[in-house]
Amino acid sequence: MATNIEIKARVKGFDQLKERVEQISDTAVEVIPQKDTFFHVPQGRLKLRVLAPDRGQLVYYERPDMAGPKTSNYFIYSTSDPKTLETILAVSLGVRGIVSKERHLYLVGHTRIHLDKVDSLGNFLELEVVLSEEQSPPEGEAIATELMRRLGIDAADLVEGAYLDLLELKEN
Fold it and tell me: Mind listing the domains of the chain with CATH numbers?
């Protein structure tokens, strides 16, 4: 299982934050429309991320629901036929929910910075510090904390859980 350290935060000033991210990013922005379909599973989360009709990723991950930097363990399987895979998973497991978003992806070192415009929820920032085999979770947490400081992310803006959890709370 691969491991990263993640944070998720609500964003009030999307354009201002985007400017700050662009100043420190090692790459130009990649804008990616995404549809994540979550399925019922006994533990963790399982989602099919559709990036294009012929490009998808099945992602299983386990991550505690807490604010602040947290360890996420995950597997990713790429598919060139996401529609068929979605049908099989929906029939066999049942669909828990769908999250649609426009992701603005940047890279800073080994950290993926996502500025997400999530349908029905608003704007968010995600940091994913991808750990190498030599790095420990505390090292990744230090990187995430430093990036939060550099980008002006306040601890009060941190979010627990996944976008799907926030959508489910909003519906209830």
Answer: 2-171 (2.40.320.10)
